[in-house]
Design goal:
alpha/beta; Arc Repressor Mutant, subunit A; about 20% strand; about 325 residues; five-stranded mixed beta sheet; 12 strands; 3 domains; D-Maltodextrin-Binding Protein, domain 2
């Protein structure tokens, strides 16, 4: 009798294909590399074919592996769809929910209020994944995602939560030592230090604004972590573009006016919009609705505040 392929083995095959190494697949699956290798060996024995070549660049699919890949992905889609159908009908306020959000949203907007959520829903196990990567909700990399760019997939339910205004900030100690930049004038940032964002597509809008409005400043640090940038700014490393909702609550920081034309001196780049996304098959699950309602109440209240006094104020 021919041996039947185990879905779990197919899942391991796909993880190795996507991550290129046993270690990468193991990390994604939350297991150890030895287990992943053992499950791959079992699948190769079942299909009686080698599915990957072990190369210096990692695991590369063989001809046999390439042939079964689309079928494996189809199996994955069907299994995940069936799981979503079942879970979407679950009306228990219990179970696991994986929420993906940027580090700043996670640490500054969500985590400080999670005790309220767990007090109300003690049987919901919320997992908070801090990432700037666009997670795949269809593949259950997360159940709910907060993103700074609007998702357009047809199978997602998307909601606009709130906007994040940004402005230029510096520590009081930095300004006492370096002086306040003469923003709005040619070379007004000469001699000043700047803490910038990583030179990636995700921060292109902010980096373009920095280049346009702070000519003459020296970028001494870049990071893809807004929390790290804020910590460095508080420590006096340099000026930085930060979310107003967070930076205005930090007593060590002060806004630095950047006049443009006749506008308010707190001009910054266009605000970021926070979008909430969830797969439409899960929207009916009680535990998912509980998380969405919590986020709606918590983040919708994060409206931009009135401008606080700047470094140039009397």
């Amino acid at each position: 009798m021919q041996e039947v392929i185990d879905w779990d083995d197919v899942r391991f095959f796909l993880a190795i294909h996507r991550h290129g190494t046993l270690a990468g697949a193991a990390s994604a699956l939350g297991l150890d590399a030895t287990t992943v290798g053992r499950r791959l060996a079992r699948l190769e024995q079942t299909v009686d074919a080698r599915l990957f070549d072990r190369t210096a660049r990692g695991y590369v699919a063989t001809a046999a592996g390439t042939r079964i890949l689309p079928r494996a992905e189809k199996i994955e889609r069907e299994v995940l769809a069936a799981m979503r159908d079942v879970e979407g009908e679950d009306q228990r306020l219990a179970g696991h929910v994986r929420l993906a959000a940027t580090e700043m949203l996670s640490t500054r907007f969500i985590a400080p209020h999670l005790h309220h959520f767990h007090r109300k829903y003690p049987e919901i196990r919320l997992e908070l994944a801090c990432t700037n990567r666009e997670v795949d909700l269809g593949r259950r990399e997360a159940d709910v995602a907060l993103r700074l760019a609007r998702p357009h997939q047809d199978d997602l339910v998307v909601k606009r939560l709130f906007v994040i205004d940004l402005a230029l900030y510096a520590a009081h100690d930095y300004l006492a030592t370096m002086g306040t930049p003469n923003a709005g004038t040619q070379g007004g940032f000469a001699g000043h230090r700047f803490v910038g964002f990583a030179d990636t597509r995700a921060f292109r809008r902010e980096n373009e604004w920095i280049d346009e409005h702070t000519a003459g400043a020296e970028v001494v640090l870049r990071s893809d972590s807004v929390s790290s940038i804020m910590s460095a700014t508080i420590a006096g490393v340099g000026l930085a573009l930060l979310p107003c909702k967070v930076a205005d609550d930090e007593p060590a920081l002060v806004r630095v006016p950047v006049p443009v034309g006749g506008a308010t001196p707190f001009v910054g780049p266009d605000p970021r919009v926070v979008w909430q996304a969830v797969h439409r098959d899960l929207i009916g699950a009680a535990r998912i609705r509980a998380v969405l309602e919590f986020l709606g109440r918590l983040l919708a209240a994060a409206e931009p505040q009135a401008a606080r006094p700047s470094a140039a104020s009397p």
